[in-house]
Specification:
The protein is an alpha/beta fold. The chain has one domain: 3-Layer(aba) Sandwich (Rossmann fold), CATH 3.40.50. Helix 2 packs parallel to helix 4. It has six helices and six strands; from the N terminus they run βαβββααβαβαα. A six-stranded mixed sheet has the order 3-4-2-1-5-6, sandwiched between helices.
């Protein structure tokens, strides 16, 4: 029986950019190694900050891309510089991600691989993975303290959360 891996990421093809490419390539490569890979992600909206035309007016889409089952949930897309809008965008996926719980209970993945730096979804997915008693791997990439400082989420370079 193949290992069941559930990847949770805000970005996946056809989104464009470094993060979507990394996750998509990783999922495809793991699939070629015999791992049963599924992805939970958002409706594609990156980099424009608008849901792609083929996915407009949809709340949920299930599709297969290169043999990888992909479950896409709605989120409020945004590329705004306003930190409140960006946080609400991330929180919106955290909330719609909760709708995947019945699917996850049925699928029973062995491992959750959570792609972050989107911390709200990382927290939500980690909690669900732990509640389901599954191994959780949190892959934190591209987390830059300067980003939090520039967004005003951290007030000073001297704050504990910035220096850690």
């Amino acid at each position: 029986m193949a290992l069941k891996l559930e990847i949770v990421s805000m970005f996946f093809a056809p989104d464009q950019g470094g993060a979507p490419n990394r996750i998509t390539i990783m999922a495809n490569e793991l699939k070629t190694k015999g791992i049963d890979v599924n992805v939970i992600t958002t409706l594609p909206s990156y980099p424009a900050g608008k849901i792609h035309k083929a996915y407009k007016n949809k709340f949920f889409v299930k599709e297969i891309r290169n043999g990888v089952t992909c479950r896409r949930y709605w989120m409020l897309p945004s590329n705004s510089n306003n930190p409140y809008v960006r946080v609400f965008s991330m929180l919106s996926f955290s909330l719609t991600f909760l709708l995947s719980i019945p699917y996850l209970l049925k699928r029973k993945p062995d491992i959750f691989l959570i792609q972050s730096p989107h911390l709200p979804i990382a927290c939500t997915a980690s909690i669900i993975g732990k509640l389901l008693r599954k191994k959780v791997i949190l892959n934190v990439s591209d987390l830059w303290p300067n980003s939090a400082l520039e967004l005003g989420l951290i007030k000073s370079e001297k704050s504990l959360s910035y220096s850690v």
